Amino acid sequence: MRPLDFGVFYAPFHPYGQDPTLALEYDLERIEALDRFGYDEAWVGEHHSGGYELIGSPEIFIAAAAQRTRNIKLGTGVVSMPYHHPWLLADRICLLDHLTRGRLIFGTGPGALPTDAYVLGIDPVDQRRRHEEALEAVLALFGSEEPVTRETDWFTMREARLQVRPYQWPHPEIAVAAMVSPSGPRLAGRYGASLLSLSMSAAAEGFAAIGNAWGVVEEQAAQTGRPAPDRSTWRILGQVHVAETRAQAVQDCTYGLRDFANYFGGGAGFVPLSDGGDPAQLSDHEFVEQYGASGRAMIGTPDDAIAYVEKLLDQSGGFGTFLMLGHDWASPAATLESYRLFARHVIPHFKGRLAAPKASHDWAVAKREQIFGRAGEAVIGAIKSHAAGTGATRDGA
User: Fold this and answer.
1) Residue 268 scores a pLDDT above 80
2) What is the mean pLDDT of the chain?
3) Which of 69, 106, 189, 290 has its CA 20 to 30 A from that of 98?
């Protein structure tokens, strides 16, 4: 099998009450660390309200991150396409593709925060339709040097073309987000895009279940006459924090996991991330233990993380990239240590980097008697020869 790729997906999540300038600097520093540690990808989201997810333009943020990194790919995670005119968006993506020298991945979605759509006067019922209309228009601009004309109830393009073509040929990889509905998998299959599964729960049912999503992609590809999609283009999100011991991992997450869960059940407008009862009656330590035991997150050791990813592979039937959710569950120092431990122990396990050194070591140990014995004899022989020659010289003197 193709080795897995790994990355981190930053909404990002920052509890209010901290300096937003320093929070954004922390995000840049984390992506710099991921680049040093050898991660493959970092993704950055777009949000405009709620006071928790602070990046309003992933394109601007990625341009800054690209100047601080060398190898890591940078994805818009995701651009909310109903909020943007597709011609202007395509033009910005082309610019960013050049500024990153082809390290850009263009992630798209309908927009996830209901408050963003409310401020813009967009009916949530229209968001998925608008996403598809904008995606089709951008693909037309990327795919043709001829003028493109489109007319919808929310944007108009008259003889539009790109004055600068993308840096990557024919264009950056395009990924569509999927959370609960079948909209994302349908678009991925229909337009030949990659799939970005962002469900907050690996145990989700229906179309959010990772065991079902790829079937929708394949079904839509078949209906449009496209070739069978490659699972290596599928990215799956997981919630992870790693420490040397499980007890330390739990203790680390008492720093901020409760704030994160409260946000999801409040300003974000999603289903509360708790398992019933009154979380206020739990201590921070008990809350973290309950959250980890629920199965929606992996809070433990590198070995636990390996088992977690392997379970996701079994559930899904196989995918190409595992993305960890970027969060403030732990302090900055503990978060960076989690990334380091994951890179040291988990990533090489799935990249196939550990088998060859072990095989070479085991071979050398098995050959010890056969090879090292003769090598020892050669050393002893050289010593004796030297001693004999030295003695002869002295006698001659």
Assistant:
1) no
2) 91
3) 189
